[in-house]
């Protein structure tokens, strides 16, 4: 059995209109081992976020394939791909994307709403455990506007972990935080990678943050440098 959870084969991504074409990714190839912590580091405009979205099934490649546990995710229809994302992939974004009208606990529970009643009950218990583990036991009923940036990102991490994903995709998770909070978020991601064996792929422009991963791929001008 392969030790790789993700295989990226010949990925290209272009955006075209009637007058021009922009090639964002050019023949990208790499694998990600199960339980690995991989950073994809590069400057703004290198194509990092586009690549991460393709890995997570959010944006179709122009060419190439992405295999998750041996299966081509873009060979699935949209409903099957959505189900795969919900069950096996968690996302952490730079700008948190918390719903302002919901509490921290309610935001964490959002990905579990499609579960059965029994599973939702288990998710509620797990959500409380996650938030406590992330130092937010006293903030469960607070809405995002009452939380600091670092606290909001910790809520977003808990939300990404609520369905016990095998793969955690992080898009500049420290980019909207000060250096201290950024280091705390990196420490938390490393902790969950080691303790829960969740595979982490993180894109970042920050070389110092990238060094916190077990392996670093450098992306520049749409190619692996």
Q: Can you describe this structure?
A:
This protein has 225 residues and is an alpha/beta fold. It has a single domain (4-217), classed as 3-Layer(aba) Sandwich (Rossmann fold). The chain has helices at residues 48-55, 78-88, 104-109, 117-133, 149-161, 179-195, 207-210, and strands at 4-16, 21-33, 37-41, 63-68, 71-72, 89-93, 167-171, 199-204, 215-220, 223-224. The strands form two sheets. A six-stranded mixed beta sheet has the order 6-7-8-3-9-10, with helices on both faces. The mean pLDDT is 92.
Structure summarized in a few sentences:
The chain has about 220 residues and is of the alpha/beta class.
Could you name the ranges where pLDDT drops below 50 across 5 or more consecutive residues? none
List the helices and strands in order.
Answer: EEEHEEHEHHHEHEHEE
How many strands appear in the DSSP assignment?
10
**How many domains would you count in the coordinates?**
1
Overall 3D geometry?
globular
- Computed over alpha carbons, the radius of gyration is 17 Å
**How would you classify the helix and strand content by structural class?**
alpha/beta
Average residue-wise pLDDT: 92
Query: Strand fraction band?
Result: 25-35%
Largest sheet: 6 strands, mixed
Helix content: 25-40%
